[in-house]
Amino acid sequence: MTPLPVTAAQGRRLILDLQGLADPPHRRFQDGGLLDLITRMGFVQVDSIRTVARAHHTILHSRNRTYRPAMLDGLLERDRSLFEHWTHDASVIPTAFYPVWRRKFRREAAALREKYRRWHGPDFEAETGPLLNLIGENGPVRARDLEKRPARNPRGWWDWHAGKTALEFLWRTGELAVARRENFQKVYDLAPRVLPPEAFEDEPDEPAFIDRACRSALDRLGFGTAGEIAGYWNLVTTREATAWIAARQGREVIEAVVGAADPDSRPRRLFAPADLEARIVATADPPPGLRALSPFDPAVRDRKRLRHLFGFDFRIEIFVAEAQRQYGYYVFPLLEGDRMVGRIDMTADRAAGILNVHKLWPEPGIRFGAGRRRALEGLLNRISRFADCRDVAYAENSLPER
After folding, report:
1. Are the C-beta atoms of residues 166 and 157 closer than 8 Å to each other?
2. In 3-state terms, what secondary structure has residue 293?
3. 120 close to 114: Cβ distance less than 8 angstroms
4. Which range of residues forms the domain containing residue 336?
5. Is the pLDDT of residue 134 over 50?
6. 210: in domain
7. How many domains does the chain have?
8. Average pLDDT for residues 250-262, to the nearest whole number?
9. Is 115 helix (H, G, I), strand (E, B) or coil?
10. Both 294 and 168 in a single domain?
11. DSSP secondary structure letter of residue 5
12. Confidence grade of residue 127 (pLDDT, cut at 50, 70, 90)
């Protein structure tokens, strides 16, 4: 079968549509609207860095200007329609996926146990029982609550570090769940006390687990390699994704040749759902305005994919030594329609009520003339209000010449 040709422009529009970035950004969420958005995306990465706002809030606000953090808190802590766990990183995930994660816990338990034994010695498992009893009898705990208890021995879990590790182990293996966060610190409780009863029903068997993981990943990616499909949720191995594709190729899965926006890249031969052509036809055009994306936004997380489709070379420089950074510690890509038009370094000084703009770098060939500057001003004013600031201040030479 001849691979389906897909242009880079078609690919960009499809990805933005799948990731909620083609939705009208000013339309208020209807009942269930935020949960629907997160379900379409699959997950939203959680991160503690708050140069402007935390990543999960920035990701959602960039898609809908009416989003406020209390909306996410309600889904996590009141409705329990989301839970917090690991994909490729800490994320909030629709609770409808929790039965899949229970299979993940079962698959990974032995390897995690060995990992934690290496960290804390062979007595580690004996330490988790008393912690479960403590939580069962006294209710939710934070890692810092364990600091107040005397250490039983240098390696015992009553020591803060070991206590935190025991909590994380029990969370990673599904015994505990995150009930809420207090000042961004996780509060752990027994999983059945946090999540609704339906979360503990209908755990898939191995074939169903692999099928659901790969199918749902491909639906959200639009197209990808076996490695990209496996890595989307980080639930299955590349070998398992390869076997899943092979069993469905020509029927449910087809090949597509996706063109490149990057002049130095060649078209990529990728796997896609069999109805990819119909999905492309049904794709909505993204809105034309400017958006600042979190560095952890799923639309920019895969650098190779981003460079191929958008011609945009981006990396997070948090872990790059300051002297070696090309741009800055925490820089936001700027999306306009279906193009990346620049990146911006900004921080919120909440005490002073000011959003400080340090530097804007347009992409080659992009001018920030009068119209685009007005759009930027509107964007920064919205971000300022979202970050609990009153004003926007521009550093000298922060904006390019007209």
Report:
1. yes
2. coil
3. no
4. 290-394
5. yes
6. yes
7. 3
8. 97
9. helix
10. no
11. E
12. confident
Whether 231 maps to a domain, the answer reads: yes
Pair of tokens at residue 252: 């449910």
101 in any annotated domain = no
Tokens of 182: 């207090």
Q: Are 377 and 385 in contact (CB under 8 A)?
A: no
Query: Does one domain contain both 119 and 181?
Result: yes
Distances (CA, A) of 348 to 73, 159, 236, 353, 380: 22, 36, 39, 8, 11
The DSSP code sequence of 69-87 is: HHHHHIIIIIS--EEEEES
Of 186, 193, 242, 194, nearest to 218 by C-alpha is 242
Residue 277 tokens, joined: 């052509």
Q: How confident is the model at residue 153 (pLDDT cuts 50, 70, 90)?
A: very low
Angstrom CA distances, 241 to 8, 54, 221, 244, stand at 24, 32, 14, 5
Q: Which amino acid is at 14?
A: L
If you count DSSP H runs as helices and E runs as strands, how many of each does the chain have, helices first?
Answer: 14, 13
305 contacts 19 by C-beta, under 8 angstroms: no
Among 282, 299, 327, identify where a domain stops. Answer: 282
Tell me how many degrees the CA angle 17-66-295 measures, rounded to the nearest 5.
Answer: 55
Co-location of 86 and 44 in the same domain: yes
The number of beta carbons lying within 10 Å of the beta carbon of residue 49 is 16
Token code pair at residue 275: 């109805």
Q: Identify the CATH number of the domain in which residue 302 sits.
A: 3.40.630
- Decide if 102 is inside a domain: no
The rounded distance, in Å, linking the Cα atoms of 402 and 76 is 45
Residue 188, domain CATH = 1.10.10
Please give the Cα distance from 355 to 392 (Å, whole number).
5
State in Å, rounded, how far the first CA of the chain is from the last one: 51
CA distance 207 to 212: 9
Number of Cα atoms under 13 Å in the Cβ half of residue 84: 25
Joined tokens for residue 283: 């794709």
Q: Is 80 exceeded by the pLDDT of residue 316?
A: yes
Same domain, 267 and 304: no
